[in-house]
Amino acid sequence: MSVIPITPASAGPPASQASAADTLDLAGKIYQESVLPHVLTVADGGRLPAPLVIDLDPTTVCDLACPECISSNVLHHGQIARDRIVELAEELAASQVQAVILIGGGEPLLHRSIDTVIDTLHAGGIRLGLVTNGTTIDRHLDRLAEKLSWVRVSVDAATEPVYDAFRPSRGKDSAFPGVMENMQTLARRKRGRLGYSFLLMQRFGADGTLTDSNYHEVYAAGLRAKEMGCDYFELKAMLDMDHFTVNQQQSHIDQVLEQWGRLEELQDESFHLLRSSNWEAVRQGSDPHQPKDYSACAVAGLRTTITPTGVYVCPYHRGNPHGLLGDIRDTSFAELWKNADTARIDPRRDCRFHCARHPTNVEIGALAKRSEPVTAVPDYDPFI
């Protein structure tokens, strides 16, 4: 395929004006001026010298003991060695990586070298995001407030009893009061965005009877998010251990929708509501199996996942030997990426669940077939 010309445009949300809602338009983000040329390279079958975005799991250690944790199979298998993760941060800072998301696996802020990692990546011009349980925000407050583009805290509750039921601490005391205080403090000082994440969860007895749920706390959690100064409240649906959506009774969906309707009245220029693609699938009663008609994931050429146990094609395949690209413990990241087979996962066979990047893959596939110029929009969010 011939190279598709790019036409700059003044349209599109610049970084200073983009709302939190823009962050969920993953397919739309590939048209940004600093992203589109790399996307076209991948669409044309080429390889990038480095991925644009990296999900980085510094550690597999977590201080909570959530029964529904989808990462339970990869927890407590160590961390990236302190010297190696600092060296890795230096490698990434010197590369063409545009953004790094500190995530897990475990709780990223528990790695003892995390402050140095943040400092190094930030100094290298890399944009940073963080997904955290919020228990140790206070230990890293200055850096998180000054150097992070966004921080998303997984809370999944509005009150301490419900929080303790679904996000119990490994210690004897509830983590909920500390998490709330940490978020309020960060909200007052932050430069980037702060998000309150709510994963809908239910438990059923052997006879199918509902025994526990956080569905009734959606409105109260969203209200708490706004009152503490969060920029957005995000709703997500629980997945099974293989990442498939779990469809719910219509009465339970209606319970959420009624609360969501009331939350919509709270939206303004400084507070947004976000709904994940998996919740939309559940809300619509979609088949948990999402068919794919492409044999290789184009997004795997644009972003990757680094963990203490290896580098994987994406977070969905974290811990899956078939999705393993290599191990940064015994090689530089540049060398690993150069030799990585990012097409080792066949989405038709290996990704039958609802994938958040599926629309992006479809969009890139369409780009590969176009001959007319593609219009680029100003940069607003590198976290594609």
Automatic annotation (TrEMBL):
<dbReference type="InterPro" id="IPR013785">
    <property type="entry name" value="Aldolase_TIM"/>
</dbReference>
<dbReference type="InterPro" id="IPR058240">
    <property type="entry name" value="rSAM_sf"/>
</dbReference>
<keyword id="KW-0411">Iron-sulfur</keyword>
<dbReference type="GO" id="GO:0003824">
    <property type="term" value="F:catalytic activity"/>
</dbReference>
<dbReference type="InterPro" id="IPR050377">
    <property type="entry name" value="Radical_SAM_PqqE_MftC-like"/>
</dbReference>
<keyword id="KW-0408">Iron</keyword>
<dbReference type="GO" id="GO:0051536">
    <property type="term" value="F:iron-sulfur cluster binding"/>
</dbReference>
<keyword id="KW-0949">S-adenosyl-L-methionine</keyword>
<keyword id="KW-0479">Metal-binding</keyword>
<feature type="domain" description="Radical SAM core">
    <location>
        <begin position="48"/>
        <end position="273"/>
    </location>
</feature>
<dbReference type="GO" id="GO:0046872">
    <property type="term" value="F:metal ion binding"/>
</dbReference>
<dbReference type="InterPro" id="IPR007197">
    <property type="entry name" value="rSAM"/>
</dbReference>
<dbReference type="Pfam" id="PF04055">
    <property type="entry name" value="Radical_SAM"/>
</dbReference>
<protein>
    <submittedName>
        <fullName>Radical SAM protein</fullName>
    </submittedName>
</protein>
